[in-house]
Amino acid sequence: xxxxxxxxxxxxxxxxxxxxxxxxxxxxxxxxxxxxxxxxxxxxxxxxxxxxxxxxxxxxxxxxxxxxxxxxxxxxxxxxxxxxxxxxxxxxxxxxxxxxxxxxxxx
Length: 107
Hints:
9% strand, 3 strands, mainly alpha
């Protein structure tokens, strides 16, 4: 993503300063969501004490520490946890969350 588009994205974050009830980030893995943008969004949502909900891409999981809600599907959760098997049922989800690295825990 070019500098111009990144700048536009950063300017659009002003809407958070103007009062919103929460922020939803859908990461499609196309380059719009990067570590710097997320740092700014997290700072603003924490400052204004509003929830940050993220629909993540597994390769970006390290970006999503300290978000309110993380909503990966089963395949994404399986990939993000580097699990040896696919998550297929609730028991697999419970077992995977038990071994979730501390840096991915939701605050």
